[in-house]
Amino acid sequence: SSAKSAEQMLEELGKRGNKLAIKALEERQENRRCLKRKVDDGYTGPSATSSKNTLFRESPSERHKSNQDDPDAKTCHAEDSVEYWNDQRAKLGLKPLKEKK
Predict the structure, then answer these.
(1) Residue 40: helix, strand or coil by DSSP?
(2) What ranges does the record give for the region Disordered, renumbered to this chain (predicted)?
């Protein structure tokens, strides 16, 4: 499947030290953990989340911080372009990176 090959490719890039690949892999693992946590907790919908709201309150801002461009990652490779990563992240079911205007 395309998601599998995209993930394998991310792992390859991550091994070579590509910061965007590592970030995407970490987000993907975090997404999996969140899904698993909901299942493990016997997630039943809004009533279950109301008590847990404090757990997730920081996550949007934390995620926003992690999406900030790393100045060290600025090179001219295609695999460092925002378009390229939005495409790869879409294959993995991740939100697109914010493009800096």
Answers:
(1) helix
(2) 36-81
Q: How is 47-97 classified by DSSP, letter by letter? A: HHHHTTHHHHTTHHHHHHHHTSPPGGG--S-GGGSHHHHHHHHHHTTPPPP
Count of Cβ atoms closer than 10 Å to residue 85 Cβ? 21
Tokens of 51: 């008590």
Place of tokens 């987000």: 27
Q: Give which of 71, 55, 67 is closest to 97, Cα–Cα.
A: 67
pLDDT digit string, tens, across residues 23-33: 988 888 888 88
Higher model confidence: residue 65 or residue 91? 91
Q: Quick one: tokens of 89?
A: 């992240």
